[in-house]
TrEMBL record, chains A, B:
The keyword Protease applies. PROSITE patterns: CARBOXYPEPT_SER_HIS, CARBOXYPEPT_SER_SER. One of its GO terms (molecular function) is serine-type carboxypeptidase activity. One of its GO terms (biological process) is proteolysis. Carboxypeptidase II is a dimer, where each monomer is composed of two chains linked by a disulfide bond. Gene3D superfamilies: 3.40.50.11320, 6.10.250.940, alpha/beta hydrolase. Keywords: Carboxypeptidase, Disulfide bond, Glycoprotein, Hydrolase, Protease, Signal, Zymogen. It comes from Hordeum vulgare subsp. vulgare (Domesticated barley). This is Carboxypeptidase. Belongs to the peptidase S10 family. Residues 1-23 form the signal peptide. It catalyses: Preferential release of a C-terminal arginine or lysine residue.
């Protein structure tokens, strides 16, 4: 491979501490974020950010799990989505300059590592432009693995620690493939540096046939498309690859999209971002009983914040002067995607047999990778059931539903869209804690 | 029929006027509501309420359509639901004593007549207690027809006017059956007193087989029930009557209910009424951008308000001293329901052929008579399509979807539950106006 340097940016957010800060090894100090521009005063955790070169290569710690978070796309930024509007500790205000704390950040339960993946996404780059046009599942997994190996050299305190991978949407491909690679590389090693224990994926692309089947049924059963388009989608798409559909299938997908109209398919029952949406700002804090209000325009603020020079400096990002602005998703990476296996289910079978913990969750108001797609895909695994479908509870209210299979736990989050921790932050943190403990969701 | 007196209470709300009030004929003055206890000062419409005896029997007007509204159950009150939390002009405050105006009341477009139907529901009563235990579709239609004939004698200014029937839920049975009866009684009459032009039903029980099929699919596709219960429901219920299911079917329905847990099946994505729900009160008015907030506890306030002696006096209700309190739904009437035809579709065919306008609407977040049930039922009519499934718009936002068939228009309301005008009042009024004009929902 005559590929040039591919450098991936990662953001590490460690667990909140009330202990006096321990001194970090000197070689990590270069990655330490002193202060993010606009951050609130009450920050009691450490965070680090920097590049790891995955083709050539190069921590202070708490005794907590390390969790790698990946967003999908393909081509979307884990810093823009995962860190900034989902499971990270900071949310960006509408001014695009200041931050506030997410009180349901997952770093209350684990050390979080956000990776901009693959090269070409967010701040991650390659000096070989051709790399952006030749992205694919296999290279993404190899680079992410190389990243982890090198990153653990820089932050050796995280070696041997329980390690988990989490992700959403097309990361439903990244996560199991990376897990499989780690599993294979560690097989037979007594005490592996990357001590993989399990993974959790949400609204995850999993199996093209069953995902298509469930997605079309979801669109119809949620009243988004006509009877005839429902029929034609099943006729023309079911045996296609989701990343490389046939022209006939694309025609019907476009027809479905025009029938759906100008909705937010990622969250059917919340307001889309528009000119009047900003009226809602800040209500979440002032009127806590309106817990379902959220700001649908967060992406706009990310696009301001992460292009501020002082923010890039604080993040040790864009040190090479990338020729394009930071974006939430790269169109190039997304459009030129090469290999995309049609099913992750063989990997599920393999890793379940190997004792890797697998949890799958689904926000049930997402029309992009909907709950029905996930139900069909998981059902196709034909795993024995340990606990049948049941509602799980949070403060006496139904938080969603769950089914525990032998080797896999499926959890839905009621009323949440594609980005579950954005729409249902408290319920998502409960889910994450139960995943880490590997205990079923609460029945009361 | 040796049945005793059955008296039905009706509430008439006429269209808002800015004209000087015309003098109403003297025989209607007894029904005029001078002032409802707790009503706001700015009331610019007339309303009347009183009993019409349908076994023996015994109006000022504006040039507007007359619309009869019916709630379902069977056994639920059109005053408690339709008038007080859906399409009527007044809503009840949490104190159970004062009222505020519903700015999207359907009396902005037509004169509304709310009928407590059948006898035994709400304030409607029978001196023959056995009547409450022998309710059914046929008697309900006959009594409602007798009511209308007698009521038009008291309010003759509404005779010969364009007349429509509207209703929801089990009124999906009442409405077409009453329409058919009126149609048959008027056939061949040049200028009928009840000048039936059409009907509109929402989240309406329509055809038991297709309703069951669609309801089970909705429960599964919305993540409420297990794969196995979904399978078993289809196996045991599909050929049953919805009002008289078999013990096997009932067993699986109960299983489904326990899997669903403590949710509000009438509106999946809003908060159920509980101790903290009252925190939301009044926000709708003070923070208009929070248009999706609504008060889920309205029924509680109705139960206070309509049992106040001064309210009953103002309504000319309960003049005979009914032995039980006013309730939103009568358990007796609901439990002892006799005849319930399995399908309204033959009546649809008959009335479409007769040129009666039929609109069907569906709030798409109702799990009780869900959108999928309605889609299957309407699809079973096999009507030619004039406009295929398309999103309709309100202020640039998708209000729902619609399909125009030859003789029938289907409209969904996005994000609305079982009581569409409660959850989406503005969109419901738009729908009602388009129904009255018989023009398709707006494409922009």
């Amino acid at each position: 491979m005559a590929r040039g340097l591919a450098a991936l940016l990662a953001l590490l957010v460690s667990v909140s501490v009330s202990l006096p800060a321990a001194a970090a090894p000197a070689d990590q100090e270069g990655d330490r974020i002193r202060e993010l521009p606009g951050q609130p005063p009450n920050v009691d955790f450490s965070h680090y950010s920097g590049y790891v070169t995955v083709n050539q290569a190069r921590g202070r710690a708490l005794f907590y799990w390390l969790v790698l978070w990946l967003n999908g796309g393909p081509g979307c930024s884990s810093v823009g989505y995962g860190a900034s509007e989902e499971v990270g500790p900071f949310r960006i205000r509408p001014d695009g300059k200041t931050l506030y704390l997410n009180k349901h950040s997952w770093n209350k339960a684990a050390n979080l590592l956000f990776l901009e993946s693959p090269a070409g996404v967010g701040f991650s780059y390659s000096n070989t432009t051709m790399d952006l046009y030749t992205g694919g599942d296999a290279k993404t997994a190899l680079d992410a693995y190389a990243f982890l190996v090198n990153w653990l050299e820089r932050f050796p305190q995280y070696k041997y620690r329980e390690f988990y991978i989490a992700g959403e949407s097309y990361a439903g491909h990244y996560v199991p493939q990376l897990a499989k690679l780690i599993y294979e590389k560690s097989k037979g090693i007594q005490n592996p540096a990357i001590n993989l224990k399990g993974f959790v994926v949400g609204n995850a692309v999993t199996d093209d046939y069953n995902d298509y089947l469930g997605t079309f049924e979801y669109w119809w059963s949620h009243g988004l498309i006509s009877d005839s388009t429902y029929h034609n989608l099943k006729k023309t798409c079911l045996f296609d690859s989701s990343e490389h559909p046939s022209p006939e299938c694309v025609k019907n997908l476009n027809l479905a999209s025009s029938e759906e109209g100008n909705i937010d398919p990622y969250s059917l029952y919340t307001k889309p971002c528009n000119s009047s949406a900003s009226l809602k700002l800040g209500l979440g804090g002032r009127y806590p009983w309106l817990s379902r209000a959220y700001d649908p325009c967060t992406e706009r603020y990310s696009n301001i914040y992460y292009n501020l020079p002082e923010v890039q400096t604080a993040l040790h990002a864009n040190t090479t002067g990338i020729k394009y602005p930071w974006k939430t998703c790269s169109d190039i990476v997304g459009s030129y995607w090469a290999d995309s296996p049609r099913s992750m289910l063989p990997i599920y079978h393999e890793l379940i047999a190997a004792g890797i913990r697998i949890w799958v969750f689904s926000g049930d108001t997402d029309a992009v990778v909907p709950i029905t797609a996930t139900r069909y895909s998981i059902s196709a695994l034909k795993l024995p059931t340990l606990m049948n479908w049941y509602p799980w509870y949070d403060h006496g209210k139904v938080g969603g539903w769950s089914q525990v299979y032998k080797g896999l736990t499926l959890v839905t989050v009621a009323g949440a869209g594609h980005e579950v921790p954005l729409h249902r932050p408290r319920q998502a943190l409960i889910l994450f804690r139960h995943f880490l403990k590997d205990t079923p969701m609460p029945t009361q």
